[in-house]
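Treating backbone geometry as a discrete language has practical consequences that deserve illustration. Part of our work consisted of pairing the sequence of a single chain with a tokenised description of its backbone. We regard such an encoding as a compact summary of how the chain folds. The amino acid sequence and the backbone structure tokens for this protein are reproduced below.
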Amino acid sequence: MPAKRSKKTTKTTKTASANESKQRIPFHFHAEAHAFSGTFHRPVLYPIAAQASVSLPTIGGHAHSRVENFRVDGLVRFTAASSHVSGSWQNDEIVTTHATAVIEGLNILDFITADRIVARLTSEHHVGEREGHFIALGSTFEGLKIAGHAVTVTLRHDLMVECRTFATLRDRLAKDKKPDKISVTTDGVALCSLAEDINVQFPGLHKEGHILKIDHFGEISFAEVFAAFGTRTLTMLRLKLGSPQAANGTVVECTTNGQPMPPTPSGT
């Protein structure tokens, strides 16, 4: 009988230890998004704080932010902007994270207008794998115009769907036959674009891959992805304006990643 009690006690202890271990090694969630941010330097200095900015708690859950009828006279306005992030366990083996940012009725300097721009990043992280898989399906430009000219942007969603890890993405970009679309660094990060084609043409416009350079206005970068091990950031529009107004800004940006916590030290 004592031996049986000892065996039963040992089994109970192991079960408790396993449960305790699972509780003490949670997933560290991370996601953030915002709809617009920037700083105008000329003709006046005017910083614009991140609009509809939101951040996901490390324990998961969800968060949402919305801004309506934003206006800085003569510079930028939009009718609505919203961001939403969430993170949860799909089951005992899969963790999901998502970030979405949307802007509607956008007008920048009466030069860039859009009915709607959406950035959407989702990730799935399987227990036991070092990285999650990120995709950007649902990201889109609707009713985009530059200088009054309609702009059609075709996105290559297959890039993120097919490249499940940072290593495969880095290798894919290194072999890309269109090097003007990407820039890969050697210090563990990569910059690329989901823009496969930007269909627009007017006098004073110069195309360089996913970047439009416009005389007497500046540069507009489309659908940039900043990638590192275990994380992705998608910026649908990045602005670098130079003349006659000078400004830097981002339009609709979101980030997701997430990592398991390190194992509990032995003996604790």
Observations:
- Residues 1-25, 264-268 have pLDDT under 50 and may be disordered.
- The first strand starts at residue 27 and ends at 42.
- The two ends are 31 Å apart (CA to CA).
